[in-house]
Design brief:
Layout (H helix, E strand, L loop, with lengths): L15 H20 L6 E5 L5 E6 L12 H12 L9 E6 L3 H9 L4 E6 L11 H6 L6 E3 L4 H17 L1
Parallel strand pairs: 3-4, 4-5
Antiparallel strand pairs: 1-2, 1-3
The protein binds zinc ion.
Length: 166
């Protein structure tokens, strides 16, 4: 396929068990980056068979890049390791809904299949949910949210609290 011609009609439907397995992996990585001092967020790039191709985490605090959210780090890694700009054959899995910056970047990369745990935080700035970004996207985007939502929200709350106590 020519660069720029992104196929937006892929639709991946992972089983509930697979979705939960992947979100639990994101939760593990989120705990690891939280232990290093970052916000507890992680993202996985997954192929149509459910295999994890790349993983990354939020590194805003330990680095110096305020845009170093898990999804943005993942996109840089994809560019460096996969050498492609069209990620439409992959799904994005994370322990929380993407912020508007990341949702926009992922959609620009052709990602149309999202699986996430916790919903967007009400305190997010700017307060634009992933669903609102998707509603402005002129092609179908498949979002499977609230996978283990209570567990993910609880973990984020707990680890964020620990971080503030440090
Ligand atoms: Zn983000």
């Amino acid at each position: 396929m020519e660069p720029g011609n992104i196929c937006y009609d892929t639709h991946m439907d992972f089983s509930k068990e697979k979705q939960e397995e992947l979100v639990r992996r994101a939760m593990e990585l989120a705990a690891q980056t939280a232990a290093a001092g970052n916000r507890p967020f992680a993202a996985l790039l997954v192929d149509a068979d459910g295999a994890v191709i790349l993983e990354d985490v939020n590194t805003v605090t330990t680095g110096t890049n305020v845009a170093a959210h898990a999804e943005i780090n993942l996109l840089f890694q994809a560019a460096q390791k996969l050498h492609i700009r069209d990620l439409s054959s992959y799904a994005l899995v994370s322990n929380a809904a993407s912020c508007p910056m990341c949702a926009t970047a992922l959609i620009k990369a052709g990602v149309t299949n999202f699986y996430y745990g916790a919903p967007n935080e009400a305190t997010m700035v700017p307060s634009i949910t992933m669903e609102e970004v998707i509603a402005k996207t002129p092609h179908p985007v498949n979002v499977h949210g609230n996978v283990l939502a209570n567990e993910c929200s609880g973990q984020i709350k707990q680890l964020s609290g620990l971080r503030q106590a440090l």
